[in-house]
Fold this protein.
Amino acid sequence: MTAIDDFVARYAAVYEHSPWVAERVAPLAADIDDVERLAALMADCVDNASREQQLELIRAHPDLAVKAGSAGELTEDSSEEQASAGLDRCSPSEFERFQALNAAYRDKFGFPFVMAVRGSSRAEILDAFAARLDNDRDLEFETALAEIHKIASLRLAAMRVTT
């Protein structure tokens, strides 16, 4: 395997179901070991992708507080991130509220609500969810991309800690 192949294999999952980010960045970043520089290069790649690719990236993210098997399987990273925020331990009323907000959000914007949930409580996430429903589509599109970049940065940092 080449350094580029190794890079893609290692970082393909940083952006949810979107290995194209690692594939495009690999020739520029195969030798970079600084998490912040790597995160910036990957974010720049996404920010310069077509609007269609950005929308596909947003749509690659799962709904929040979805029970396993309900709407496709969560990736290991997403599952851990949601569990860290207690989304796997919702009360029946919280779970119902998440499902209603997921549906309302998708109906309004055409993509899932994306939030870097690690370190947030269920109440904070529900409050952000409800508040962001008042945004227009363009603002919410940009907010989703910003949250995706936060998720990617957290995933990169976690990879550095565990290796």
